[in-house]
Amino acid sequence: MKQTALALLFAAALPLAQAQTPSVMALWPEGVPGAKTGLGPERNDKGTTTNVSEPTLTVFRPAVDRPNGTAVIIAPGGGYVMQATAREGEQYANWLSTLGVTSFVLKYRLAEFGHPAPLQDVLRAVRLVREHAAELHVRPDRIGVMGSSAGGHLAASAGTLFDSPLGRTGAAIDKVSARPDFLMLMYPVITMEEPAVHKGSRKALLGANPSAEAIQLMSLEKQVTARTPPTLLIHTQEDQAVPVENSILFYQALTRAKVPAEMYLFEHGSHGMGMRAGLGTASMWPRRAEEWLKDRGLLDPVK
To answer: How far apart are CA 14 and CA 25, in angstroms?
Structure first.
């Protein structure tokens, strides 16, 4: 039985030379917590994903001969109602693969489930990658989470709420640490409070009339502690969907907690810019991110 489960989870765990085609890992092989019936099939259209009921990780192996052992779990954005899987998932994974990083694009549950389902999914993803680091050829102390927009909120949730009981289901794997080793946040949703809140993300995650306690918990600038992992933040002034104040609030909280953080605030670049060219200095953010990863030793070869 155990062998069968591992085969299901790690169809991707082939010799590295053969594993350039992405493959899929089941996030909840024992059954999705709070599973719902009658939701209909998942929908995939023009690079987006909606109506998720079976969360997964799609594995992208490094496109180099000697991977460095760093892993990044990527949460695409989409306001907790959809996921920009191609632009903010697969595209980032392909870029990271050129740096020797093993990437895992997270397909997480959305508004059909609401809080705490996305948190459960991202924390299970971290635990799963860490528990099976050897099979995946990654280091258990080099597992980061990257997210864009609402996916940035989910990534920041992993970095602040990794010990929350809401992220546990009673499975044996809950004993594995869900704390990411670093965060990379692209124009993230951070706060659930006015005036900087992205109201669509708040409604999709917490409902039309969230409690004060839920707003407080999921306003992640209020959940930062000294244990929050080192963080890279990227945002733009031109972002009319998720105000730049979201990143600023998180950076200020990180600074107060003495958490290493670096933030790039660019003039140009609309929300959801991904890796578009022609946005002035904002189009160079992958270079800045590579420098940050390198400076933190995350691109050093495995010893």
So the answer is: 13
At residue 266, the 3 state secondary structure works out as: strand
* Mean predicted confidence (pLDDT) in 28-36: 96
Task: Give the tens place of pLDDT for each residue, 59-114.
Answer: 999 977 779 999 999 999 999 999 999 999 999 999 999 999 999 999 999 999 99
User: Which residue in 100, 98, 49, 53 sits closest to 75, CA to CA?
Assistant: 49
* Span 192-214, pLDDT tens digits: 999 999 999 999 999 999 999 99
User: What residue ranges in the chain does DSSP mark as E strands?
Assistant: 23-26, 43-45, 48-50, 56-60, 71-75, 102-107, 143-148, 182-186, 231-236, 261-266
Name the residue with tokens 């997270």: 106
d(CA 114, CA 211): 14
241 CB-near residues (< 8 Å, 6+ apart):
149, 198, 270, 271, 272
Q: Which uninterrupted H or E stretch holds 204? A: helix 199-206
Q: Which residues pair with 58 in a beta bridge?
A: 24, 105
Can you tell me which residue has the tokens 């918990």? Answer: 217
Residues paired with residue 45 on neighbouring β-strands, in sequence order: 48
List the one residue out of 4, 21, 89, 17 whose CA is nearest residue 49: 89
Phi, psi of 75 (to 5 degrees): -110, 105
Q: What residue spans define the domains of the chain?
A: 52-295
Residues 162 and 178: beta-carbon distance below 8 Å: yes
Please list the alpha-helical segments (H only) found in 62-146: 85, 91-97, 117-131, 133-136
What residues contact 66, with CB distance under 8 A and at least 6 apart?
A: 100, 301, 302
> Given strand 23-26, what is the order of strands in its sheet?
23-26, 56-60, 102-107, 71-75, 143-148, 182-186, 231-236, 261-266
Pick the CATH number of 52-295 from 3.40.50.1820, 3.40.190.10, 3.40.50.2300, 1.10.10.10: 3.40.50.1820
